[in-house]
Design brief:
By secondary structure, the chain is of the alpha+beta class. It has four domains: about 130 residues, 2-Layer Sandwich (Phosphorylase Kinase, domain 1), CATH 3.30.200; about 180 residues, Transferase(Phosphotransferase), domain 1 (Orthogonal Bundle); about 80 residues, Phosphorylase Kinase, domain 1, CATH 3.30.200.20; about 220 residues, Transferase(Phosphotransferase) domain 1 (Transferase(Phosphotransferase), domain 1). Helices cover about 30% and strands about 15% of the residues. The chain is built from 22 helices and 19 strands. The protein starts with 13 loop residues before the first strand and ends in a 23-residue tail after the last helix.
Length: about 700
């Protein structure tokens, strides 16, 4: 339904031969209005255009807000199709998609709320699924853990079974057509190639779908039934677990030959249960394939791979998804292609496209007129490496970017300003010496979570063998402390807003099983000089960690308790407490102008570490006399570390930060800011990082500010 900026696989073109049923002469397709229950008949005037989510030669997908009726204010995705550009078979499929969506009501299938038409266009009003598609997430993660895959495939199995029960073969199963809602649950979408009214005695003969996901019986055109969907289900499972497709040749013809004849190469790092299920799904004889027997989906649900799934809870959406899209404003579009979302939303009267309007619309699977394109090279391969996702044909960083002045220098890396040669845009590049540090975790974490509005965005990655180049957005607003010092005055209310933004970001990271472990003012920067807390970015994930299983694959917190050793769980909480501690030190310093455990440049590292170890600090006297009680409470709780419930920051003190009306407007006087500046800078000579406690892994405090 929506665009993706990473791989152009959705441009795959399928050769299509209509069955005799589909070849009937159709002069006009009558698409009647569909009205949401309890609502009035809809028209275009009832929807306010907000953003463009996707665009192609057939039409656009908009984010819209309903302006009238009982659902006024509700956000929807509006799929707009130009009648003039739709051939007869495309009109048939539009009608088919509309009819199927009206008929289907399932928690894991996208819901159609309204359908209407004007003289020039067709309109489908659907759920707005802010999490984007599974393909985009897979592109960023390369591959999922088995626990992630188990969850997504279990929900998908229920959706497919529901369609099959209605006599519908889906026929276009692929990651691009699986969307994520705001909670992280899947929604199956795009029914343009689905086939209705199929019973167990009849078959469909259309050659359609995306070739890499086609079952053998679809490829050889001998007729297919519901079991074709379960082959595609296996392809999807294989891709999610390994990051590659099971059958993929240099062109379409070779790919189809592999589907019909090639032996499956089973990766041995997969569990025995996963391998067993894959082999049961990849049966070339559809009657022997899992899901094709008299028990249908129950055969799949009983498989040991799904032994830990409570299917009743799953259907009721009571099992927590492994990934929850970043929270923000209801109309945020973090997970959609900025190429589209940056455009001004405008819906003009329907006109035929220009001659070069050849971009395929990714909510409608395209079907070619003939099979002449079978020997054309594939437009994109499955994700094979992180670097290949980004620079494609450019092999060296210096070929694409011009390096400018230094921004910062660290023990393992150097950060410089750079300019992209093709666009003239300014970026920052972090150059990491691979001989001194493995940047894999940092790159993977930025790929997965860099879409969050307050985490630095990774734009490009290069690897020349000696160094890794991480190209990120250029943060022109400077560091947090420098920004505050330039203001001359800084109030509790301002400190509250800053800390709230940082805390919500840390909460998001911890919910994904990520600990930063190096939170300090030099790693908290502003995008611009506005000083708006929303422009804050947390940077430098060089010490960040993602909890992993013994086999090296990623794990998410909601599955940890099932199979992780207690010492691993303890270590995770231990690391998370470092982040909470750092938040406390940051709040203390913002409120008072000095740090809690260092008194001056003459302090030795041993003395500072001893104070940190004791955990003793004062909240009375001196500058604390001008600090409100409301501001002191979260600081006290933050200092308790891992033993405190504040290891879950959102539950215990976010409410304090949100109550801005009780926070004083007291300004930190210039003398406080002056002391703040001199103290933090003088500590650099001590080579001590007071933002981390003595429990930091490797005593990173000794690495300097």
């Amino acid at each position: 339904l929506f665009g993706s900026q990473y791989i152009e696989r959705w441009k795959t073109v399928c050769a299509h031969k209509l069955s005799s049923l589909e070849e009937v002469s159709v002069k006009e397709i009558n698409i009647t209005h569909h009205v949401k229950e309890g609502s009035e008949k809809a028209d275009l005037q009832q929807f306010e255009l907000r953003k463009v989510l996707g665009q192609g030669s057939f039409g656009k997908v908009f984010l819209v807000k309903k302006t009238t009726g009982p659902d006024a204010g509700q956000l929807y995705a509006m799929k707009v199709l130009k009648k003039a550009t739709l051939k007869v078979r495309d009109r048939v499929r539009t009608k088919m998609e509309r009819d199927i969506l009206v008929e289907v009501n399932h928690p894991f299938i996208v819901k159609l709320h309204y359908a209407f038409q004007t003289e020039g266009k067709l309109y489908l009003i659907l759920d707005f699924l802010r999490g984007g598609d599974l393909f985009t997430r897979l592109s960023k993660e390369v591959m999922f853990t088995e626990e992630d895959v188990k969850f997504y495939l279990a929900e998908l199995a229920l959706a497919l079974d529901h369609l099959h029960g209605l006599g519908i073969i889906y026929r276009d199963l692929k990651p691009e057509n699986i969307l994520l809602d705001e909670d992280g649950h899947i929604k199956l979408t795009d029914f343009g190639l689905s086939k209705e009214s199929i019973d167990h005695e009849n078959k469909a003969y259309s050659f359609c779908g995306t070739v890499e996901y086609m079952a053998p019986e679809v490829v050889n055109r001998r007729g297919h039934t519901y079991s074709a969907d379960w082959w595609s289900y296996g392809v999807l499972m294989f891709e999610m677990l390994t990051g590659t497709l099971p059958f993929q040749g240099k062109d379409r013809k070779e790919t189809m030959t592999m589907i019909l004849k090639a032996k499956l190469g089973m990766p041995q790092f997969l569990s025995s249960e996963a391998q067993s299920l894959l082999r049961s799904l990849f049966k070339r004889n559809p009657s022997n394939r899992f899901g094709a027997g008299p028990d249908g989906v129950e055969e799949i649900k009983r498989h040991p791979f799904y032994a830990t799934i409570d299917w009743n809870k799953l259907f009721r959406r009571e099992i927590h998804p492994p990934f929850k899209p970043a929270s923000g404003r209801p109309d945020d579009t973090f997970y959609f292609d900025p190429e589209f979302t940056a455009k001004t939303p405008k819906d003009s009267p329907g006109v035929p496209p220009s001659a070069n309007a050849n971009q395929l619309f990714r909510g409608f699977s395209f079907v070619a007129i003939s099979s002449e394109e079978e020997s054309q090279p594939l437009q994109g391969n499955s994700v094979s490496s992180i670097v290949q996702q980004f620079h494609r044909n450019v092999s060296q960083f210096n070929d694409a970017y011009e390096v400018k002045e230094d921004i910062g220098v660290g023990s393992y890396s150097i950060c410089r300003r750079c300019i992209q040669k093709s666009t003239g845009m300014e970026y920052a590049v972090k150059i990491i010496n691979k001989a001194k540090r493995d940047p894999t975790d940092e790159v993977e974490i930025l790929l997965r979570y860099g879409q969050h509005p307050n985490i630095i965005t990774l734009k490009d990655v290069f690897d020349d063998g000696r160094s890794v180049y991480l190209v990120t957005e250029l943060l022109k607003g400077g560091e947090l402390l420098d920004k505050i010092l330039r203001q001359k005055f800084f109030s509790e209310r301002e400190a509250s807003a800053v800390l709230y933004t940082i805390t919500k970001t840390v909460e998001y990271l911890h919910a994904q099983g990520v600990v930063h472990r190096d939170l300090k003012p030099s790693n908290i920067l502003y995008v611009d000089e506005s000083g708006n807390p929303e422009s804050i970015r947390i940077c430098d994930f060089g010490f960040a960690k993602q909890l992993r299983a013994e086999n090296g694959l990623l794990m998410t917190p909601c599955y940890t308790a099932n199979f992780v050793a207690p010492e691993v769980l303890k270590k995770q909480g231990y690391d998370a407490a470092c982040d909470i501690w750092s938040l406390g030190v940051l709040l203390y310093t913002m409120l008072t102008g000095f740090t809690p455990f260092a008194n001056g440049p003459e302090d030795t590292p041993e003395e500072i570490l001893a104070r940190i170890g004791s955990g003793k600090f004062s909240l009375t006297g001196g500058y604390w006399n001008s600090v409100s009680l409301e501001a002191k409470v979260p600081k006290t709780r933050l200092s308790r570390g891992a033993s405190s419930p504040l290891a879950r920051p959102n539950q215990q003190f976010n409410f304090r930060l949100q109550q801005s009306h009780i926070v004083q407007k007291t300004h930190l006087v210039p003398v406080v800011l002056s002391r703040w500046s001199s103290e933090t800078r003088s500590l650099q000579g001590n080579n001590i990082c007071i933002w981390c406690s003595s429990s930091c892994p490797g005593l990173r405090c000794l690495s300097g500010l």
